[in-house]
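Q: What changes when adenosine-5'-diphosphate is included in the input?
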Amino acid sequence: MRNSTTAGTEKTHDTVLSVRDICVAFGDNVVLDHLDLDVYRGEILGFVGGSGTGKSVLMRSILRLMPRQKGVIRILGEDYDSVDEDTRIALDMRLGVLFQHGALFSSLTVRENIQVPMREYLDLPKSLMDELAELKIAMVGLAPDSADKYPSELSGGMIKRAALARALALDPDLVFLDEPTSGLDPIGAAEFDELIAQLRDTMGLTVYMVTHDLDSLFSVCDRIAVLGQKRVLVQGSIDDMLAFDDPWVQAYFQGKRARMIPDRNRKTNFAAADNGADPTGSKPARVLRSETS
Ligand SMILES: Nc1ncnc2c1ncn2[C@@H]1O[C@H](COP(=O)(O)OP(=O)(O)O)[C@@H](O)[C@H]1O
Ligand SMILES: [Mg+2]
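A: The predicted holo structure follows.
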């Protein structure tokens, strides 16, 4: 694997996304340079890197929304560039996407937003699409009456959930989430992380999550990949990150904010927090973390 370090033990994995030797430049601005990355079936991969390093560019170029100069992308076993049109459509239906500025269509209700991918790819009767939308709304923990609301009537957290419901509209195998918890308060972010983990377990999802939320990385991500110097510097476990000899990686994972996370393996019952119960004996973990020095 060129220019990339994979830390951790050698193991056979079912690779659902394989990115090899990707180069993306805008004029003279080289953003990604010979980048390699793997995502394994059933995992939540946290993808981190400094602001403006190319995390969104990589996601967009994987999804063929942005041109690249070089590289091979295999998704769910297929070379995404060389498949025929029918196979590409079939592949696209197995991918869900939540973009960074997660935009729902403002002129459509939540139900209609969730039905956008269904209308694009499937020819279903309205009654069935309504049923499916209701199901997705329940899956992401929104109240049934959210279906008729417009995005402007929703809180930030509800918008993220509705956008997630739309990403899950076609029961994808692999979902791409670009900073899904940015802009949420710590409790909202923790609940969203819990939801992602729960959906991964119940739907058998694989999750590619761009984030710079250290709490997400410590609490729900199975593996982490770090973007730096225009490529993936390291991919592996939190322990691999802590052991990796690079100033940015060290500062990020061993800096002051990271040290404030006392127990990265703690499993907290956020549903209990939601009901006003007391999940940790006092407060939800993120509140505890930010108060612990
Ligand atoms: N459409 C574009 N045209 C030109 N440059 C772009 C475009 N999109 C992103 N870039 C540049 O690519 C770099 C990485 O951007 P981005 O992937 O959005 O960063 P981030 O890691 O914060 O998501 C930035 O320097 C940005 O200016
Ligand atoms: Mg971005």
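Observations recorded in class: Residues 1-6, 264-293 have pLDDT under 50 and may be disordered.
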